[in-house]
Amino acid sequence: MGRLKKGSRCSICKAKGEKDKAVVFLPHHRLALCKKHFVEWFEKRVEKTIKEFRMFSKKDKILVAVSGGKDSLALWNALTNLGYEADGFYIDLGIPEYSEDSKNLAISFSEKIRRPLHIVSLKEEIAPIPQIDKATSRPACSACGTVKRYYMNRYAKQLGYNIIATGHNLDDEAAVLFGNTLHWDIDYLKRQYPVLKEENGFIRKVKPLCKITEKESALYAFFNNIEYIEYECPFSEGASSIEYKELLSQLEEKHPGTKLQFYTNFLKKMYPILRQHEEKEKKEIKLCKICGEPSFTDVCSVCKLKEKVKTEV
Ligand code: AMP
Ligand code: FES
Ligand code: ZN
Ligand code: ZN
Fold first, then answer.
1. Same domain, 28 and 43
2. Could you report the per-residue pLDDT of 255-276, keeping only the tens digit for each?
3. Ligand 2 atom nearest 232 alpha carbon
4. Kind of pairing, strands 204-206 and 163-165?
5. Residue 164 CA: which ligand is closest?
6. Are 110 and 80 in the same domain?
7. CA distances, 48 to each of 42, 57, 305 (Å)
8. Domains held by the chain: number
9. 0.90 cut: is pTM over it?
10. Residue 83 shares a structural domain with residue 229
11. Cα separation of 271 and 251, whole Å?
């Protein structure tokens, strides 16, 4: 977040003839805001994003995937304040300390806002992440991403929700876009949109914070007294996305608005071109022979992972 000049007044209060001091400066929006107007600005921006990408409406039943981190809890709070019907979904990954701490924070938050939180334990479904990490040659994070997507989709359907909302923010999306562009990973670029529509057994997935920076969501969480997990998962150390985030933040410091432009111009200019291509060569989706969930292969990657973990013990 940019530097706030001493004595700056809130842009919105000023326009209304009020005198509140600004506590935040958003350089890429050229806005200085007081606490109340920052919270309002944040929620309006989330609402605008939901409408811009036609993510969902007040009639939908939304399942917010909560990790116990600032983004997903901030999202759950904002959706609830905006009047959406949003419940939580937490996957206990069985990572010592990290999973216990984040689970407790997710539970406390759900009690605070009085909305249900559904909890699924990976230990009961397959095995905890440290055990999966030992059984596979791929980094734990990649297996973790696969199982998270799988259980979010499976349980949302079973529990009767029609939307899954995740807390991915602008920093996450810009870093992933940077990595995919660096490698010209067209298959991933084709899917990098804040809405993945429902089809073939997949539930609609949305990212309402895709235009909110990490710092903005941390500030929103702070102003709303949301307690969240402040340390990273121990398995994420050394991930290349962290390096990309640092690089983009250096650029942002010098040229405010870089991240937002990089991401939104991709959505506006490049994504439609890639999409046309996608329509022509759509891959066929089958149902996994073992669990019946959608899959590109006869047996889905989670069932394959289960087999692998079983043979290792
Ligand atoms: P990450 O991949 O850890 O950056 O998380 C991205 C998003 O995935 C979060 O904002 C959450 O919405 C969701 N998520 C991550 N971890 C979990 C979890 N253990 N349980 C449920 N949702 C999660
Ligand atoms: Fe999945 Fe860290 S959160 S391995
Ligand atoms: Zn104000
Ligand atoms: Zn399967």
1. no
2. 999 999 999 999 999 999 998 8
3. 2
4. parallel
5. 1
6. yes
7. 10, 12, 39
8. 2
9. yes
10. yes
11. 23
* Of 64, 66, 67, best ligand 1 pocket probe by most atoms within 8 Å of the beta carbon: 67
Same-domain status, 173 and 146: yes
Q: Is the CB of 65 under 6 A from ligand 2?
A: no
CB of 239 within 6 A of ligand 2: the answer is: no
CA 7–ligand 3 middle distance (angstroms): 13
Contact criterion met (CB below 8 Å) for 271 and 192 = yes
pLDDT in tens, 76-112: 999 999 999 999 999 999 999 999 999 999 999 999 9
Q: Say whether both 73 and 7 belong to one domain.
A: no
Same domain, 13 and 95: no
Looking at all shown ligands, the one closest to residue 73's CA atom is 1
Ligand 2 contact, 56 CB (< 6 A)? no
Q: Which domain holds residue 16?
A: 1-33
287 alpha carbon, closest ligand: 4
How many angstroms separate the CA atoms of 140 and 305, rounded? Answer: 12
- CA dist., res. 218 & res. 35, Å (int): 13
pLDDT in tens, 196-247: 999 989 999 999 999 999 999 999 999 999 999 999 999 887 677 889 999 9
Q: Based on the fold, state whether residues 164 and 286 are members of the same structural domain.
A: yes
- The answer on 81 and 6 residing in a single domain is no
DSSP state of 295: E
Which position has the token pair 């479904």?
A: 125
What does the pLDDT average to over 144-160?
A: 96
Q: What is the mean pLDDT of residues 61-82?
A: 98
Residue list, ligand 1 pocket, CB within 6 Å? 65-67, 71-72, 89-91, 93, 148, 166-168, 172
Tokens of 44: 């309006």
Cα of 272 from ligand 4 centre, angstroms: 32
